[in-house]
Predict the structure.
Amino acid sequence: MNSDVSVAIVGGGPCGLLTALLLARTGVRCTVFEKRSGISTHPKAMGFSRRTCEIFRQLGLLEEIRIGSMPADYRFLSIWAKSLVGEELGRVPFVQVSDEFSPCSRLHCPQTWTEKVLLDAVRKEPLAEIRFNCDVVSVDPKPDQVRLCVSGSESLTFDWLVAADGAGSAVRHQLHVETAGPGDMGHFLNVMFRANYGPHLSDRRAILYPALSNEYFEHFVAVNGADLWLMHHFLQPGERVQDYTFERMQPMVAKASGLPDEPVEILSIMPWVMSPKVAALFRIGRVLLVGDAAARLSPAGGLGLNTGLQAAHNLAWKLAYVVLGRAADSLLDTYQEERRGTAFWTMQNTNRNSDEIFAVVASAGEDDWDKVRTLIANSRRAGTGLGQDLGVVYPAGAFVPDDSELPAVKDPINDYHPAARPGSRAPHLWLGQPGVKLSTLDLFRGSFVVLVGEDYRSKSPIISELSLLQNGKDFTAEGFEELYGITSTGAVLVRPDGYVGARWRYLEENFPEQLASAFASILGTKG
């Protein structure tokens, strides 16, 4: 049964869909099981980091994502005020970053559109299938397979299972995987509504609008910047979700907006719990956790979905190589080795963002408006975020260290010094190709690539599985050798996810043997 389908994916949200797309494009047949009848109708997560946009660019989906995103001319992350149009308390700007570090900028795209783009792409892949209205009610992992019970009766077996079934992951609970983190930090309602607030905010163009007074704290989020909005409402202890009807929410939105004459249409209400936790294990035998099932983060910073998508990008090529017999099973251990520490560090950062918001609200509750303004003016979220975004470095994993030192940074969240040290994202450089704006990142299309300096000369054959691209011949990037830390005869091995797997400052006569050894070491096939 299912002998031709290698991987089951539980959960058809963004992380499950991205995993399916990556697997299918690498030649692995997979099936996604989603208990809902279709994709999300409530926007939920929206912010995409530069690194996540680089992944969409690699897949050829960035322009589609951009179509559903808000215009990129918003200069402020958040504008705090006593209502949407009330007395201002402070602004937190977006720091403008040049294209020196990435070919992509941040985007603000509702999850509804993201899932549509990903679903459309998955449906074009003959090796991927998505089955809606399919609830996986139990998982039975064995040493050589995983058995699923779907919708109470159907029993199916697969070689591998990827659990992308959200923060309350039933798969994680069934496998008794513990989690670490602060846990419950508050219960909220995520209210989607339609109101024509955009024209009233022409001088207050932002993504987030925390509205704070002595009577309320409501957090408005622009969905399209015009008439579609979210509002996060904090539930007080003892309050129940079912007590908040559409009729009750409408005047609350109108009051906090400061625009009582604008009609408000409540479209949907979704409860959620701020409960940051990271799973103790990302791999349990033939079961792998991804997305919120592996790490659920505070939304303060918009890093939860980004962390999940980047983890899926890390996992998919490794799982594909194992399924296709190109790598040893041990390669999948490096998924947890690389991504769990990253998720935990990111969770700590987003928790500090949440603490900052809570401190502002608490100061307002004490009627200390001077402190409110001071806290907002000194927001830790006013930095570039480049270190958190592009500077994630794995201390150990599927790469061959070269004993080079990490670039020193004062602020790991905001400071970023590009370097092609193994375990780091391969740096971006613009290519000198007339008429087309391409990046070194565009050389990485989901397979291993060897980049060599302009004076590389070798008559020895390269490994058939590897593409070799030479600066000055196959691509032209000014400053490539210097930025990548090699000489004009050196080489860098880049993994399918755009991370550096190995580096040689200069090449010796036996480079093909060295390359083969490093490649086998990364894949776990070295004897």
User: Anything to note?
Assistant: The chain has a mean pLDDT of 93. The longest strand covers residues 265-273. The longest helix spans residues 333-365.
